[in-house]
Amino acid sequence: MNDRIRVREVRLIDAEGKQVGVVPTEEARRMASEVGLDLVEVAPDARPPVCKIMDYGKYKYEQRKKHTGKKPHHSKLKELRLRPRTDDHDYGVKMKHARDWLDKGDKVQIVLQYRGRELVHQEVGRALLDKFVRELADIAKIESQGRIDAKRLSVLLCRK
């Protein structure tokens, strides 16, 4: 980079990516400093070495990003709890969370809990759970249908 380049001539690529040709190293350094960028050796084994006028800090940042890359998303199981008397606003918030999680690739388990006398009117809770699943039908499918465990009814959804 810049003053560390010790050869007499280099094949130069300018800041726009166009080949300038073989030029003396001093002239290449001068051209780089005129535009406020660095002269970076990109192919030192070539004869003559290939140098490019670029922002070295930005180049190093991009190289680091390329090597680290994006980590894959591991699917998690998220749980939403509903009650037969869940209010409309709370229902909307839970729906938004479920959509976000499904978009990320997570699985969503919807659990409907009954308390006390709510257990007598299970059809109210079942209707709410069915409504929830219907509204998510465009992006999700049922992986495991509703199970009733004592006072809980659950459905497991995953991405289509």
Describe the structure.
The structure is a single chain. The protein has 160 residues and is α/β, with parallel strands linked by helices. It folds into two domains: 2-68, Ubiquitin-like (UB roll); 77-159, 2-Layer Sandwich (Translation Initiation Factor IF3), CATH 3.30.110. The chain has four helices and eight strands; from the N terminus they run ββαββαβαβαββ. The longest helix has 17 residues, at 88-104. The chain is rod-shaped and about 90 Å long.
Name of the CATH first level of the largest domain? Alpha Beta
Percent helix among the residues? 25-40%
- Number of domains as seen in the coordinates: 2
| Contiguous helical run count | 4
Major β-sheet profile = 4 strands, mixed
Tell how many strands the DSSP assignment holds. 8
Q: Mind telling me the C-alpha Rg?
A: 31 Å
Largest sheet, order of strands side by side? 2-1-4-3
**Mean pLDDT, all residues:** 89
Shape: rod-shaped
CATH topology of the largest domain: Translation Initiation Factor IF3
CATH superfamily of the largest domain: Translation initiation factor 3 (IF-3), C-terminal domain
Outline the low-pLDDT stretches: none
Which structural class matches the secondary elements? alpha/beta
What is the level-2 CATH architecture name of the largest domain? 2-Layer Sandwich
Order of helices and strands: EEHEEHEHEHEE
Beta-strand percentage?
25-35%
